[in-house]
Amino acid sequence: MNMNIWNRHFECMERDDLRYNQERRLRETVERVYFNVPYYRHKMQKAGLTPEAVNTLDDLRKLPFTTKDDLRDNYPFGLFAVPMSEIVRLHASSGTTGKPTVVGYTRNDIATWSEVMARTLTSAGADRDDFIHIAYGYGLFTGGLGLHYGGEKIGASVIPVSGGNTTRQLQLMRDLGSTILACTPSYALFLAEAIQENGVNRGDLKLKAGVLGAEPWTENMRKEIEGKLEIKAIDIYGLSEVIGPGVASECMIQNGLHVNEDHFYPEIIDPDTLEVLPEGSLGELVFTTITKEGLPLVRYRTRDLTRLNSEKCACGRTFVRMDKCLGRSDDMLIVRGVNLFPSQIEALLLEMKEIKPHYLIIVDRMHNLDTLELQVEVDEEFFQDKISQLQIIRGRLQDRLENAVGLSIKVTLVEPKTIERSEGKSRRVIDKRKF
Ligand code: DLL
């Protein structure tokens, strides 16, 4: 087993020394945002704080949180801490309101990103002799280019296939001798089935590991992928706002994801009380970026639920490990890698008078691909209409949804008052996916 470590100096640093470095970087970051981002300055002033108030990691608790809404309210560049002339790259992720979240990188940020991705790939056993098959999407999504720069940094041969066209993926994988597969876990499983269906001989493939992430997946899903593809499936985690992939990744021990905490300092909070929780508690993951220049974020609430563990890992790394993400503290669904909020669907339903916003979203998985069904009640008045009339309503709604969401959705119109009502929070989503 290749157990190399890309940056032993930082990844295996004594935790006291690490803390010293983190605190120095935190002070620099707080100063940077205070003097360069009016949003942070106002927020700190409102809380009666100046940069001098933050010296240690514990002082971080005095600072207010940052959320996706804050990014949206300052769309597109309001939270950037450098002039646009310093920004060399922009990425974006989709959101609820149609306004994407835009993130920007300086040249140094791209170097940091490449560094953490080099660590990620090395921890999955990759080195310069590997062929990295990147089937994450290239474009505004951070997956493709994130893996790409990391792969080049370790000196591997990078194959920028991007997503889709499964037959071609298989051909390239076989002919070019891909050894590392980079894609979402659901696509990895889809590819595994395609290999069988296309009669590709596993012996003709050189795959040995997968660096899989961008969506939640369970241990059962891992077993399935490892069994079918005959690879080691490594979980990699990240989010655009913090940097993209490269925030945390598993090592070959596969017992938690090492957080690159010399760049991204994690906390776990109770999402309701916002109190910082003791190590080992399950809660919402919050990050403060401590080296980023373009878009530094202070106490950014990820909404992802996990636990932290700072015991030294058998691989030698000292970085704190986070558990595989359990889910999100808000209700965002990730369907075929696309982020989807029930409120997006609800907003559209409210625009059509023939239907009522009583609905249920059913997510399932067939042949390893996510499926989406929307059951929605027809307005009493229209329910008496001819079947053909109902078909027209259904078709119109389906088109609108698919255009807005970018996913195919099966729409089922149901009789008025058939969808269960609830007194408290309504249940909008049934997720039947068994990973
Ligand atoms: O998904 C970055 C990424 C690309 C990570 C490729 C890994 C591989 P966003 O599109 O901004 O960025 O989505 C971020 O996806 O807050 C999590 O909810 C979810 N997510 C990402 N990785 C994992 C993972 C990229 N390994 C959001 N397990 C995050 C569970 C994940 N959820």
Short characterization:
The chain is an alpha/beta fold and 435 residues long. The protein has helices at 8-11, 15-36, 38-46, 68-73, 107-123, 142-153, 166-176, 185-197, 219-229, 342-349, 380-383, 387-405; strands at residues 87-93, 101-106, 131-134, 157-159, 180-183, 209-213, 232-239, 244-250, 257-259, 264-269, 283-289, 300-306, 308-309, 321-322, 327-328, 333-335, 338-340, 355-366, 369-378, 410-414, 429-431. It folds into 2 domains: 8-330, Rossmann fold (3-Layer(aba) Sandwich); 335-431, GMP Synthetase, Chain A, domain 3, CATH 3.30.300.
Features:
GMP Synthetase, Chain A, domain 3, 12 helices, binds 5'-O-[hydroxy(phenylacetyl)phosphoryl]adenosine, 435 residues, alpha/beta, Rossmann fold
Percent range of helical residues: 25-40%
Give the class from helix and strand content and strand pairing: alpha/beta
User: What is the β-strand count?
Assistant: 21
Return Rg in Å.
Answer: 23 Å
**Small molecules bound in the structure, each named once:** 5'-O-[hydroxy(phenylacetyl)phosphoryl]adenosine
Shape: globular
Output the strand order for the largest sheet: 4-3-5-6-7-8-9-14-13
* CATH topology label of the largest domain: Rossmann fold
Query: How much β-strand is present in the residues?
Result: 25-35%
N-to-C span: 27 Å
Number of domains: 2
The helix tally amounts to 12
Report the top-level CATH class of the largest domain: Alpha Beta
Low-pLDDT windows of residues:
none
CATH architecture group name of the largest domain: 3-Layer(aba) Sandwich
- Characterize the main sheet: 9 strands, mixed
Mean pLDDT: 92
